[in-house]
Specification:
It contains ten helices and 17 strands. It is an alpha+beta fold and 332 residues long. The protein has a six-stranded mixed sheet, sandwiched between helices. Strands 1-2-3-5-6 form a five-stranded mixed sheet. Strands 4-7-8-9 form a four-stranded antiparallel sheet, with no helix packed on it. β8 and β9 form a beta hairpin. α5 packs across α10 and α7 packs antiparallel against α8. The longest helix is centred in the middle third of the chain and has 19 residues. It is elongated and about 80 Å long.
Length: 332
């Protein structure tokens, strides 16, 4: 497997665990949220028994100061896979590379043990550091200034939108929200940092492009829209239905999974609206997801330990709306 892809997988894992990454130094030195700063170093297995690394100068220089984090600084040695990562305190690595101008580090496999060796320093068994990522407390965050100023129904919309963003990223999708929503945040999680700034050119006509770019949440794999979600938390419940219906009318053969996301209490009302003749093109192609399901799956995602892997599929599943016989209201 390509080394850069393996490192990218580890970065995604750490972002899910600690928060978004930023680069306070050179090479592969990253800070994740307010939790940890670390250098990420990869080696494949060499000659069947060892790994070799050249650790960046910055991470072992005793006078280099990084942004203060809850757990401090580490040197991560990826032993062929993100699931086999040695999490070594910076202080330990600084000591082991003292007087070693090449910054060369060898990790030997000896009877299932991981043994660290550097020039002119004694060997150290570092097996206990394998996947020993520090635990970080997660205080309950107060609503952000964006949330606090919103009506209750709009705060619900933002929460569900953030949940869909999180689940999409967990499935290794890039995520789109409408341009006007990118300035929102939920519990200090900025939408602009979690979503793509512009949509790819799908080859749609201008009318279809305008419909697509205003859908509440899109999940994309490369340049293909995989899933589209409309969140209905308002009284009218028409805007999302109309947008998805317009999309089906504009592109009747489009291969996108379509979802209407509502509270459980409002699901039947949505179903009754889908029974209208004007929504007949949409009704058989759209699925139902509830706010409660999104919330439950986000909690499931947050509870998953790191060892479960970088990509998680099938967390969120919709179900078809059972069709109703439509009777035109007598009071209209």
């Amino acid at each position: 497997m390509n080394a850069s892809l393996i490192v990218e997988d580890l970065v995604k894992l750490l972002e899910r665990r600690y928060g978004r990454s930023r680069q306070p130094g050179k090479a592969r030195i990253l800070t994740f949220g307010s939790a940890i700063t670390c250098s990420i170093n990869y080696s494949k297995l060499l000659n069947g028994h060892k790994f070799f690394y050249a650790v960046p100068q910055e991470i072992i220089h005793p006078e280099k100061v990084f942004p203060q984090t809850e757990a401090g600084e580490y040197v991560l040695l990826v032993c062929g896979s993100p699931k086999k990562t040695l999490v070594l305190p910076r202080a330990l690595m600084t000591q082991m590379l003292k007087g070693v101008p090449t910054r060369r580090v060898d990790i030997f496999l000896e009877n299932d043990a991981y043994v660290l060796q550097t020039t002119k320093h004694p060997k150290i068994n570092v097996t206990n550091f394998l996947n020993a990522f520090p635990e970080i407390s997660k205080p309950t965050a107060a609503p952000s200034s964006d949330e606090a100023g919103l009506p209750a129904k709009d705060r619900i919309h933002v929460k569900v939108q953030w949940g869909l963003i999180s689940l999409g990223r967990a499935e290794d999708c890039s995520v789109w929200v409408p341009t006007n929503d990118r300035n929102l945040s939920y519990q200090q999680n900025s939408f602009s940092e979690l979503t793509i700034p512009r949509l790819p050119n799908f080859g749609f006509d201008e009318n279809t492009r305008r419909i697509v770019q205003n859908i509440d949440v899109l999940w994309l794999n490369r340049n293909v829209i995989r899933k589209a979600f409309e969140i209905e938390s308002t009284t009218s419940i028409y805007s999302g239905l109309l947008r998805l219906n317009d999309l089906i009318l504009a592109q009747p053969n489009i291969q996108i999974d379509l979802y209407l996301v509502t509270s459980t209490a409002r699901r039947e009302k949505v179903r009754s609206q889908l029974a209208r003749p004007s929504f007949q093109p949409l009704a058989p192609k759209v699925q139902s997801v509830t706010f409660e399901q999104v919330d439950e799956k986000v909690k499931t995602l947050e509870s998953l330990p790191l060892k479960h892997g970088a990509r998680i599929s099938g967390l969120l599943r919709g179900e078809p709306f059972v069709p109703l016989d439509y009777t035109y209201p007598s009071d209209l």
